Amino acid sequence: MSLPTAGLPADRILDDLRALRAGDLPTHGGRTLAYVYDSGLSGLDELAAGAHALASSTNGLDPTAFPSLLRMENDIVAAASALLGGGPATVGTVTSGGTESCMLAVHAARASRGDVTRPRIVVPSTAHAAFHKAAHYFHVEVATVPVSPDTFTADPEAMAAAIDDRTVLVVVSAPSYAHGVVDPVVPVAAAARERGVRCHVDACIGGWVLPYFRALGEDVPDFDLSVPGVTSLSVDLHKYAYCPKGTSVLLHADADLRRPQFFASASWPGYTMLNSTLQSTRSGGPLAAAWAVLNHLGDDGYRSLASTVLSATRTLRAGIATMDGLRLQGDPRSTLLSVAADADDFDVFTVADEMTERGWYLQPQFGFESSAPNLHLTVTAANHGTEELLLADLAAAVASARRSGPVTMGPEVTSTIAGLDPAELTPEAFGALLAMAGMTKVAAPKRMAEVNAMLAVAPPPLRERLLVEFLSVLYTPGS
User: Coiled coil: which residue ranges (predicted)?
Assistant: First the structure.
């Protein structure tokens, strides 16, 4: 593609955009149980879009130039702090998303320990990949501690034993993404505190819904900034605060803990660069949209939405637990469900394909440690009222997968994968694997069971390398 010589009419451009969007997963209606969060409330999108438009041309690079952004950010941080056990000294920052919040928590911890030449972080094996990304970018070692094979929660004693003199941060999840379980934050944070090490709670998904679950009578373990030893916490607003994409909050227990996160540079002839996040220029649009949605829904609105999603989660959990051939992994305490096969005459990757054909997207997850291959469901308020339909389609999908039988890898594919060295994977070898998977070009086929089964055979380092190669080709013009 090249730019048109003469600009196109606005209505044609919007029509083209609508045509492009027609091939995407649906973002509303509760049919896509990953990636998107739908409140099901009418008018909320319009409010957010209007607020976004009013502030989209402002720039958070300089809060003194746009004091409206400073006011909105402080308002949002104060609301998050009040919800999540913050005290008078608590401070925070609005970021672009959970990954940036987690990366900044790692960076602040690393920067605060300049005396450590080979800093490391201690994480349970279920910690979000964002922490591995932070380690990749900031040259930090990761000490990964296996979780309980039955509950998938962090092992407090093993986490404490992994802390050493080079540890700059300990991480726990509330909840972890893969299984929706809440780690034992209290003993892990206590162990970190005893060693003088920071402890971060990744509450990106649960932070805006677990406090309301507790208010509704659910037994929610202590996990927030009120827990002694917890020094920082991340919570995404574009998840269960139902704000548009692009807003998360990173809270620190006090300003001294946050200070290493900031960046300033006066060593050039231009303006003195001063940043609170990884970004410099930041559109005020997402911030304004989040501020508008938070103020519109208010505490009562979020309590009502939490009640709605709690009801939907309970119904789906109960239905799946009694469904022939399926089982839930762990004891989910939030809105995330991990559904594995309880028989060997079908596989969950085929179930995912069958659900896609029925208009639902359930996210496949590969086996890891004691966690079997499974399907991930992120339940939102929009799923309320469609639970029985989803369960009926899921039962039909399992029946269809049984008729098809489990996906098997031929010996040629298995041996080819076994002989691959991730460090030496060539484009030719990658192309041969695509052909074996029935893919003539780098584009996802309608049915992914065979591709997922192939990836499942590959050990994680090779899977990472294959997917990086896939991504590289995918993001090539004309591919």
Answer: none
Cα Dmax for the chain: 70
What is the C-alpha separation between 475 and 442, in angstroms, rounded?
Answer: 10
CA distance 250 to 100: 9
* CB crowding 15-49: b at 16 or more within 10 Å, else e: eeeeeeeeeeeeeeebbbbbebbbbbbeebbebbe
pLDDT band with cut points at 50, 70 and 90 for residue 448: confident
Dist CA 38 CA 29 (whole Å): 7
How far from the centroid of its chain's Cα atoms is residue 50's Cα? 26
Note down the domain range covering 417: 411-474
Q: How many helices (H) and strands (E) does the chain have?
A: 16, 13
Report the C-alpha gap between 149 and 377 in whole angstroms: 21
Predicted confidence (pLDDT) per residue in 125-149, tens digit: 999 999 999 999 999 999 999 999 9
C-alpha–C-alpha distance, residues 367 and 354, integer Å: 20
Q: Using 50, 70 and 90 to split pLDDT, how confident is the model at 423?
A: confident
Kindly list the strands in the beta sheet with 336-341, ordered across the sheet, starting from the edge strand earlier in the chain: 326-328, 336-341, 374-378, 363-365
Q: Is the residue at 131 inside a domain?
A: yes
Domain assignment present for 41: no
* Count of CA atoms in the C-beta half-sphere (13 A) of 112: 21
Q: Of 241, 273, 294, which marks where a domain is finished?
A: 294
Residue 206 lies in a domain: yes
**pTM here?**
0.95
pLDDT at 432 over 80: no
E strands present in 345-477:
363-365, 374-378
Asked if 105 and 242 sit in the same domain, the reply is: yes
Q: Beta-carbon neighbour count of residue 477 at 10 Å?
A: 5
> What's the pLDDT at 285?
98
Q: How sure is the predictor about 320, in pLDDT bands with cuts at 50, 70 and 90?
A: very high
Contact 131, 106 (CB under 8 A): yes
CATH code at 228?
3.40.640.10
Looking at the structure of the chain, the number of domains it has is 2
3-state secondary structure 79-100: HHHHHCCCCCCCEEEEECCHHH
- 315: which 2 tokens? 């119904």
Q: Which stretch of DSSP H or E encloses residue 342?
A: none
